[in-house]
Amino acid sequence: MTTENTSVNCAVECVNGCIKGDACPNEAYIQQASTFIENTSLDKMLEIAEEAVRKKIMARATEPRKWVMPEDLE
């Protein structure tokens, strides 16, 4: 198994739970996410998501068109 000094690809190695336990480098993010979920209403989360989608659509609309040539697809 991994030691404390090696890096861990959490998306791959921790799919069945954190392999580092209390030494998890993402522990702070887990706590922040839990606090956000507990203290934010579902309606507010939906507002945040809608705003993010709106910003992404606006960003795409202002980008210049990109042409893709058939030879570039190979």
Short description:
The chain has 74 residues and is mostly helical.
Describe the structure.
The chain is mainly α and 74 residues long. The chain is 51% helix and 0% strand. The chain contains three helices and no strands. The mean pLDDT is 86.
Describe the structure using short key phrases.
74 residues; 51% helix; flat; mainly alpha
Number of strands: 0
Helical content, roughly?
A: 40-55%
The helix/strand series, from N terminus to C terminus, equals HHH
Count of helical stretches: 3
- Principal-axes geometry comes out as flat
Distance between the termini: 41 Å
Write the layout of secondary structure elements.
Elements: H1 10-13, H2 27-39, H3 42-62
